[in-house]
Every structure is written in C-alpha cells, then in structure tokens.
C-alpha cells in the first residue's frame, strides 16, 4: 500500500491523499506537479521516473490512513 506522503519534498506544498496533483517514483519520493515538471519528471533522489500518484478516497482514510510525516526539509 502506498504511504501517501502529505507534502512535496522540494517545495513543501501540501498534497492531500484524496486530491490529484502528486507525483511519485518507485521509492515513493513525492513531489507536486510543478516541481515534477521542473525536474523533467525525473526523481532527484534516485533518478527514477516520476509518475502520477493515484488518489485515496477520503472515506478510506480511517481504515487506511495516509502518512502524516512531512519530508520537506526547507
């Protein structure tokens, strides 16, 4: 199951699990659409391809909660 990280690792933008607009690599490094585009859809951490992250319906958050651990280092 995807971790569904709550923010962009590059700029800190909130990325709610139930909304589109997040991009991830195979290691689940997570970026907003704007940062992913600036990086030519290539993860700066591992060099992998950044892909659209699927959404998780809000009704499933109690049973399958998204991560609350933020990765933005500011």
TrEMBL record:
<protein>
    <submittedName>
        <fullName>DUF1272 domain-containing protein</fullName>
    </submittedName>
</protein>
<dbReference type="InterPro" id="IPR010696">
    <property type="entry name" value="DUF1272"/>
</dbReference>
<dbReference type="Pfam" id="PF06906">
    <property type="entry name" value="DUF1272"/>
</dbReference>
């Amino acid at each position: 199951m995807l971790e569904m990280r709550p923010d962009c690792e590059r700029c800190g933008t909130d990325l709610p699990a139930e909304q589109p607009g997040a991009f991830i690599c195979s290691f689940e490094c997570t970026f907003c659409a704007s940062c992913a585009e600036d990086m030519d859809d290539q993860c700066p951490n591992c060099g992998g391809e950044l892909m659209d992250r699927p959404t998780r319906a809000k009704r499933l958050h109690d049973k399958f909660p998204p991560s609350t651990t933020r990765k933005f280092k500011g």
